[in-house]
Specification:
Length: about 200
């Protein structure tokens, strides 16, 4: 059991692993599924991998807590998947890339600073607690960014776009904070510093 002092401010411990997402749960079609990296790549090319190719990449396991901007937190999630750093090595960004946009099914998106995407613990997760992700929790692939609120880690990940300037994603366009650090309670866009 995690003591309340170990949770970010304003968070409450939730039981289990609540399902939260916007829109319908997509159907996985392995013959049509790819993960793409595009935008400002160093080579100018677009990269694409099938699910089998992504699954064959070297993986790591992390244990992390997850925090929803609406208040609930869940603890001790074990995720296995491909480190985001591996994607950056296989598909290098151009030198002037500052941000990435994570694209998911149905056009859902979440923007991240490149530094947040490139941490040692940011993961393109395929397994949770030793089992493949359930479809409700993002199978076949979800982005896990442990140090940010959950909306920065889309389920049903399909693409990573390299960007040379920031651009808001789905929830960020709808009033959520652009950075999303739970330890600083960066929940809403009105909390952002003025330019």
């Amino acid at each position: 059991m995690v003591e309340s002092g170990q949770l970010p401010p304003g968070q409450k411990l939730a039981k289990g692993w609540p399902v939260s997402h916007y829109g319908p749960v997509p159907k996985f079609r392995p013959e049509r599924w790819t993960l793409q990296v595009f935008g400002a790549t160093a080579s100018g090319e677009k990269y694409s991998w099938t699910f089998d190719e992504v699954s064959a990449l070297p993986g790591i396991t992390i244990v992390t807590d997850m925090h929803c901007a609406s208040g609930p937190s869940t603890t001790d999630h074990e995720f296995y998947g491909v480190p985001a750093k591996t994607v950056l090595e296989l598909a290098p960004p151009a030198p002037d890339v500052t941000h990435v946009m994570a694209w998911a099914e149905y056009g859902y998106s979440a923007n991240l600073r490149l530094a947040d995407f490139a941490t040692d613990r940011t993961l393109l997760a395929m397994h949770h607690d030793g089992e493949p992700l359930t479809v409700e929790h993002g199978f076949p692939l979800r982005l896990v960014v442990p140090h940010l609120y959950g909306y920065k880690g889309p389920k049903w990940l399909r693409g990573i776009e390299y960007m040379t300037a920031d651009r808001r994603g789905f929830w960020e366009e709808r009033g959520y904070h652009n950075i999303a650090d739970p330890w600083k309670e960066q929940r809403h866009s009105y909390q952002e510093d003025s330019p």
